[in-house]
Amino acid sequence: MRRFAVLTIVFTMFLSRSIAAEAPAAPPHSWLFGAWVGGMFPPPATLSTQECLSQPMVIFTRDVVMRATMTSPTYLERQISTVRATTTGFEFKFVPATPQPPETEADVSFGCNDPDGLVVQRQGENQIAFPGCTQFPFPLVRCGTH
C-alpha cells in the first residue's frame, strides 16, 4: 500500500511538471505576425525589405492590428477581441471602436461591412487579401519576401 502511494505521488508530480513545462499554444493568427505592404495599391513587384518595413500598410501583432491611412501620419490601431482560423484564412473581431469623427469612421473599419470585424483571406505563402473591404481592394504581401 505504501509503495502504491509513493508511486502515485511520484507519477502525479511527474505529470504536473510535464503539463506545466508545455509552452502556451501560439494564437491562431500567428502566421500573420509582421508587416504587410499593398492593399490600398497593388503591391510593388520590387521592394527591398528595408523599403517595405519603412512604410508598411498593415501590421499584425498578438493583440493589435495596425493600419496606415492616407490622411494620417500615425497608424490606426484596433485591439483584437477574438480570432478564428478558417479554411481560407482568419476572421477577426475587434473591441468596439470608440466613436470617431465622421471623417475617420471609414478608416477605423478598414472599409469592411462589419466595422468591428476583418476577414483575412490567405492567397499564397506570403500574400493575403481583405475581401469585401473597400479601402483595401488589392492583395497585401509580407515584408521581407520580395
Helix and strand composition category: alpha+beta
- Total helical segments: 3
The percent of residues in helical segments reads 10-25%
What is the spatial order of strands in the main beta sheet?
Answer: 1-2-3-4-5-6-7-8
Q: First CA to last CA: what distance?
A: 67 Å
Largest sheet: 8 strands, antiparallel, barrel
Total domain count: 1
Give the percentage of residues in beta strands. 25-35%
- DSSP summary, beta strand count: 8
Name the helix and strand elements from N-terminus to C-terminus, one letter apiece: HEHEEEEHEEE
Overall 3D shape: globular
Summed over residues and divided by their number, the pLDDT gives a mean of 81
Rg estimate, integer Å? 21 Å
Regions with little confidence, pLDDT below 50 for 5+ residues:
3-16
General description of the model:
It is a single chain. The chain is α+β, with helices and mostly antiparallel strands and 146 residues long. The chain has one domain (26-142). It has three helices and eight strands; from the N terminus they run αβαββββαβββ. Strands 1-2-3-4-5-6-7-8 form an eight-stranded antiparallel β-barrel. A hairpin with an 8-residue loop joins β3 and β4 (76-85).
Per-chain topology:
Elements: H1 2-21, E1 34-38, H2 49-54, E2 58-60, E3 64-67, E4 76-85, E5 89-94, H3 105-108, E6 117-124, E7 127-129, E8 140-142
